Amino acid sequence: MSWLRPTVVCAVATVLVLMAGCQGENPDGGGDDVPLLNLRGELNPDEQWPARGSLTEDAELIAEVSQVVDQWQTTDGVGRHTRSALTSIAWLGEIDGQVLAVVAFAPEGTSNDRWIVEVTGQPGDMAVTEARDIRTRIGNSIEDTELVPIRSEGIGPRYLVSARVDWLTADGAEVQLVDGLSEEVEVGRCELVELVAAIGDERLVYGDLGTNVEPPLYPLFYARGLGPEEITDVARLQGAGVDTCAAARSEWLGSLHELFEPEIPAVLSWVELIEINSEDFRGSLEEIPVNGSGYDQRAIVIMWRPEAGPPVLSTAQLNEPRHRSLTFVFETTEGPLAVLMYPSGVNVTPEREFRDVEVSAEAALLAAEPHVIVVALPDHEVEISYTRDGEREQVGVEAP
Questions:
Q1: Considering the entire predicted model, what is its pTM?
Q2: DSSP 33
């Protein structure tokens, strides 16, 4: 393109002079404060996220991106950390006639580069066009993931992978990568996308919640590693037809964001709970365990997956303490359900088992197993009773 600058050496010298003239005292005592950002791997070796892209030698453009990011603040009004090494450019190149810069941004008050900031436009007219609070997988920075979404209008949806990733697939189709940036990928508003990143023999599975997830919320979650012949948890949720638009407004996803704040739902998995084959209810109940980004919190969502029709998901409940049973009440197309269950991972010893389950005559007992009780509810409160550890216990439940 005509605006690519061949005079890189002179431009670099100019930037070095600017940097030398702008140094100041760092209040954290971590060295000089340099307002201009650096390329990742420039100050400290970085084999995972080194700066890539076709424009990483354009010093004037680096200076412009740095100035734009220096003026940017998070949604909480926090600017970048004064230590320049904590905020850096991970990708800088040209896409379809526009410049794209991907910046790992560390806000003041934290040493984590937990924001992914996208700066796009033409040289001389660059601006922040997308910013997401990453805190993905189990961690709080770009170093804790191998994959970040690119969402700026006119450029995305795309994905930027770490230098360790050999290949990437989206819904089973391999995606072309150039300098770590994928080609444009079709991502719907309300449907999950399954992403599999390969690092050697390891397969890492991520899910994309769709373009309906508005900034600063992060649209990706981590599912788990994958064996060669395994069906991923994301694919199972896709097969269930989960609607992430409805979920993001007020249902399971919205309740997760509310429970986890300031963390975010970062890791989702999928567990079969029990099959139901009664006259009025035919289908399966699934458990969706969700971990927060800091791994300090865990929540459970229950999904009713009927033989015909879309699934229904309960609101989330925190799984604390981890060994206790949980009670869910939610509406389905067939009618309201109550589910008493032990989350997966709990050792259901004889002392913890549900035994001798009884329900009111107006309710219907659909399942009574040592780890789960399922009851179809009438339109008023009823009592579920059972024996646990030699004691008789009662739980009052009411249709929502």
A1: 0.80
A2: B
User: CA 366 → CA 33, 195, 282, 358, 381, distances in Å?
Assistant: 65, 36, 10, 11, 17
- Quickly list DSSP for 177-239: EETTEEPP----SSS-EEEEEEETTEEEEEEE--TTS-TTS--EEEEEE--TTPPPHHHHHHH
The parent domain of residue 180 ranges over 146-230
State the virtual CA torsion across 164, 170, 175, 179 in degrees, nearest 10: -40
**Count of residues making up the chain:** 400
pLDDT tens by residue, 262-314: 777 888 888 899 999 998 999 999 999 998 887 678 999 999 999 888 888 89
Which secondary-structure segment (H or E) carries 386? Answer: strand 382-388
* 11/30 Cα distance (integer angstroms): 27
Within a domain: 371: no
- Provide the token pair at 381: 């409160």
C-alpha distance across the termini of the chain, in Å: 60
Task: Judge if 168 and 223 occupy the same domain.
Answer: yes
